[in-house]
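Two records follow; treat each independently.
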Amino acid sequence: FLAIIIIFIIGNEFSFRTFRQHVVDGLSRTDLLNGKVIIIITIALANTVLIFLCALIFGFIYSKGFDAYDIFSRMYMVGIYFMQAVSYMILAMFIAIWLRNKTLSIVVLLVYSLILEPVLRLVLKKYLWTKIGLFFPVRSITKLTPIPENGLVSFIKANAELNGLTESLPLYGGVLLVLFYVLLFYWGSKKILQLRDL
């Protein structure tokens, strides 16, 4: 959802030619890109605060007993969620700058995330290297935060374990890999903006 918001923001910049107008008014292309990154960080921060407050409220309502350790023991996951939100939006920014069309960008993002990357992971895992699927961008971003346990998730995980699909990198490895992808997508967006006519 956050990625689609970013695609709409950037797509509108191209549709209404505000990118071009900003450059005419004196901003550099790097300034334009950095402005979008600031918007991404602001949206991710607001969303993270909202998720944190909802988690606290529901935790206080539905927990039978709790102490400070229960509340703050996994607080680092809030930061991981923030990083995950920024990463998804930076990926969406790259696709939107590359394609310049809102509808096409959303379709490409969804098709890549839900169809193309999973198929590529399975094919390359079978014919190239069994652990290569751990290093794809959407999977590495998604695996930063665990899925809460419930009956359906337990059933899915049990089947996934039988098929060897639950492997993941250690948290620090996943964070470093996602940081690499964030920098790569930022660099790619910057190069596209510098080489193309606005």
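The next record belongs to a different protein.
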Amino acid sequence: MSIRIGIGMFGWPFGEYGPQYLWDWIDQAENSDVDSIWLTDRIVSTELNLEPIVALSFIAARTKKMLIGTSVLALPLRNPTILAKEIATLDYLSEGRMLPAIGLGTEQRSEYEACGVRREERAARADEMLFIMRKLWSCQEFDFKGDHFTLNNVTIQPKPVRPELPPLWVGGRSQAALRRVAKLGDGWLASQVTPDEIALGKNYIEEMARHNGRSVDTDHYGVILNFALADTSETALALAQPYLIPDKQRKDINAKDINAIGTVDEIIDLINRFVSAGATKFVMRPTCPPDNMFEQLSLLTEHIIPNYHQ
């Protein structure tokens, strides 16, 4: 079991700074032991949010080592053939570094309307899309007739680099999301979850996967964590507090169980609890003012990552 730690972005964390700030941050990560970089997905937004496939193509061109992923891509808002082509192209040009993680998207009805999708159909669309994308990546010609998509003798090129295909991870913490992992996914990437919830979810996925005649690699369980590191818990919380997005459904959960905010020892202790629960991959999102983004990345690479990457 290999523990790997990557970094993530929620929206645009660089404030009024322009693209050069992102490129400098990417360069800093690429020149360290950061495993991967992940971008979130918001198509409709009043704030700056990069479209992840386009932005990752720029990042792929600037890097050679880091894996590149989506955390997570709103699958139902897109067309499966176009998306399969985009991901395969990005995987080909990055020499097999693409890690697509998908979800159903936000609860914002206007975003589905703006993309020509009925929100009530999002789960069924996502299931068909997962099946279609795999087939387009692995078959020379493919026919499909579903409730939402029809393909007749369709093929795409290039194919993804890896013979085993890019692993499609599924986000979410609902039972429906866990069933989707077990039935159609290659891994689980969860956010706003506790170590105990990871353990319970992993057991549920394994049981459901066996029921479907499948298995999910034990190395394919990941967690997205907001993080802020400082000499004291109070200083770390002061950095992060203005940038934490409250989850109204998580009022009963201790924030320290779902956010890596505190001292080095506190963050390592939380990661170790997730590892004991079965998580192996971590997406750490700096949760701090724009001027602290580079410092937080340095602290992560100097004090946290060396405990896990061997």
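Discussion point: The longest helix spans residues 122-138. How would you locate this feature using only the token line?
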